[in-house]
Write a structure and sequence with these properties.
Radius of gyration: 26 Å
Strand order of the largest sheet: 7-6-5-11-10-9-8
Helix content: 25-40%
Strand content: 25-35%
Number of strands: 15
Largest sheet: 7 strands, antiparallel
Structural class: alpha+beta
Number of helices: 6
Shape: flat
Length: about 375
């Protein structure tokens, strides 16, 4: 046995690959929360100026709240980057391990059902690799994932995890998936969702709920803007000059509140209607002799055909069908149908082929040896 082989300290297994994040992007949820907290802190600060100068009252409560919101802003914007940048990723001959100090998370390489790769838009060749394990649906439903953040050439790392030789063009997220196949891998079927204007029509209770919230925020924006203009006119007519610190602080506070409400309404509408429709139009599907591949803009899904145990199709708009790929997780023989039992779209790409015309062709290709 070669004594120079590096071994992992947790399992004592041979290390095939190890690395750290090259570039860390703060998740969208944290960036949005940091923006809200930052604007709220600015509103509280300007309101404190108005209270102190116009009403001659103590602004201690408002300033304390502003300081708390500012602290949350820093924590939400810098905290995730601080935590993720110190992670270390290890691939052994049996496990994938994520560690940071004494913190450990690991998953059996054979238990990984599929992988998602999210390429960084502003960092060419760098992306996040998310490893997903299929789990039972129903009462035992849970989410088992490991994310390897900020990897250089995440598709190369995924090839190492799969135990295959990385393709020569791997590491370039700008290339189509068809140009980054394994050596000897052949495309048997490819398609994309049939385009339709109906993709822009909202459907589902979650979407309608989001639209209701967005419209409520839009109404609140209009209501706040109307009363803000009235309030500023009233203050100006009472003799306060527009160039005084009090008037500027009042105008800034009201303007920031309007921006916060309008921004929240626009963001919710974008996530509920615009983003799903644009993602659907950018989707591309491929079935090779080894895998099912889905590409959707900067996000990809890689699924080994050996994990597919059944295919379920359901009606979609315009007489087309959605094809759900049912996966089987090792050591958990219950079946988990990706996307068929209410996975939230925010979780990322699911093993689902949307708006397919020839479902029989998909079945024939997947059942072929």
């Amino acid at each position: 046995m070669n004594g120079n082989v590096k071994r992992d300290s947790l399992f004592g297994e041979a290390v095939l690959w190890s690395g750290r994040p090259k570039a860390v992007i703060v998740p969208t949820l944290y960036r949005g929360a940091a923006f809200v907290c930052g604007v709220t802190s600015a509103i509280a600060t300007t309101s404190a100026v108005v209270v102190a100068t116009a009403l001659s009252a103590r602004p201690g409560g408002l300033l304390a709240f502003a300081a708390w919101m500012a602290t949350l802003t820093v924590f939400l914007s810098a905290g995730p980057k601080w935590w993720l940048s110190a992670l270390e990723f290890v691939v052994t001959d049996k496990h994938i391990i994520v560690r940071r100090g004494k913190f450990r998370r690991f998953i059996d390489r054979k238990a990984v059902s599929f992988a998602r790769i999210r390429w960084h838009k502003k960092q060419p060749g760098i992306g996040d690799l998310e490893l997903v394990r299929a789990v039972p649906t129903g009462a035992l439903r849970r989410r088992l994932t490991i994310v390897m953040h900020g990897l250089v050439a995440p598709d190369r790392v995924w090839a190492i995890i799969r135990g295959v030789t990385p393709a020569a063009p791997a590491g370039d997220g700008q290339r189509l998936l068809a140009q980054r196949l394994d050596e000897g891998e052949r495309v048997l079927w490819s398609a994309h969702p049939e385009p339709t204007w109906r993709a822009w029509v909202p459907s589902g209770g979650r979407t309608f709920g989001s639209i209701v919230i967005a419209l409520a925020l839009a109404v609140a924006t209009a209501f706040t803007a109307h009363h803000a203009v009235h309030a500023l006119r009233t203050v100006a007519s009472a003799g306060m000059a527009p160039n005084t610190p009090t008037f500027v602080a009042l105008a800034a506070s009201l303007s920031l509140a309007i921006v916060l409400l309008a921004g929240g309404s626009a963001a919710i509408l974008y996530e509920a209607i615009v983003r799903p429709a644009r993602q659907l139009s950018a989707s591309r599907y491929m079935i090779t002799d080894r895998r099912v591949l889905i590409q959707q803009g900067d996000e990809e899904l890689h699924l080994d055909r050996g994990h597919i145990v059944d295919v379920i199709d359901a009606p979609s708009r315009g007489g087309l069908r959605d094809v759900f790929l049912v996966l089987d997780g090792p050591h958990a023989r219950a079946l988990a149908a990706g996307g068929a039992f209410g996975e939230a779209p925010q979780q990322g790409l699911q093993p689902v082929l949307r708006r397919i015309e020839d479902v029989d062709a998909v079945r024939r290709v997947l059942k072929a040896a």
